[in-house]
Backbone:
């Protein structure tokens, strides 16, 4: 009998760019494609955000041709969890064995310095859980320290949204920092795929990171492999 694990999927609440008129938020497929891998195992899950309540969705991520987005965005349970997310302060990390930080540019503002998110990450990781993140969500790992004071990501194989990708989408002047540069400054062993916007993940023991939106499914699949097939 397989053990029953529970996953915590963390999303942003932030919507505004400094100068661009369009809104940011969660990049939808980074939640749906990851969850689609968990759904095969019927894993229980919760969705949380720094403030709780509605998780805003970056309108540019609402691709109607994405059948996985369609499937989960119109799934009443999943949609309800997105629109009534738990507040991070109300989350008990002891309930979860999998933590997943979704991306979307919004996370660049409300993930990196969130002390509650850092504490939850530390507790799930130190209890032997899996910590996963994709794209800009990897920024939520930048300032996580373990109980011994060491950095979670120093000298670990990590990926995340690259400088090149940020320039291609023309948001390199909008974000508060460039994620690739910030990860390198924290002594993470950063790497990226040869071609921008293609799936690429890094696995370092119980830490799984994906470079960009198309990497979310691979991250989910890898997390499931690590949890069930080891």
Residues:
């Amino acid at each position: 009998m397989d053990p029953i694990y529970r996953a915590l999927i963390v999303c942003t609440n932030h919507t505004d760019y400094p100068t661009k008129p369009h809104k940011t938020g969660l990049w939808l497929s980074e939640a749906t494609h990851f969850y689609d891998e968990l759904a095969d195992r019927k894993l229980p899950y919760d969705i949380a955000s720094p403030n709780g309540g509605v998780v805003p969705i970056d309108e540019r991520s609402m691709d109607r041709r994405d059948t996985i987005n369609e499937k989960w965005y119109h799934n009443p349970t999943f949609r309800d969890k997105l629109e009534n997310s738990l507040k991070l302060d109300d989350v008990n990390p002891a309930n979860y064995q999998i933590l997943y930080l979704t991306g979307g540019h919004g996370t660049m503002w409300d993930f990196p310095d969130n002390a509650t998110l850092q504490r939850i990450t530390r507790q799930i990781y130190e209890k032997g859980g899996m910590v996963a993140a994709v794209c800009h969500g990897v920024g939520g790992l930048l300032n996580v320290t373990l109980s011994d004071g060491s950095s979670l990501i120093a000298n670990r194989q990590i990926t995340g949204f690259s400088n090149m990708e940020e320039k291609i989408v023309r948001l390199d002047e909008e974000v508060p920092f460039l994620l690739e540069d910030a990860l390198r400054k924290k002594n993470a062993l950063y790497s990226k795929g040869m071609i921008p916007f293609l799936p690429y993940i890094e696995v370092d023991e119980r830490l799984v990171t994906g470079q960009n939106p198309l990497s979310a499914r691979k991250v989910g699949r890898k997390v499931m492999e690590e949890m069930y097939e080891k």
Q: What stands out?
A: The chain is about 30% helix and 15% strand. The longest helix spans residues 216-228. The domain at 7-228 is CATH 3.40.50.880 (Rossmann fold). The mean pLDDT is 96.
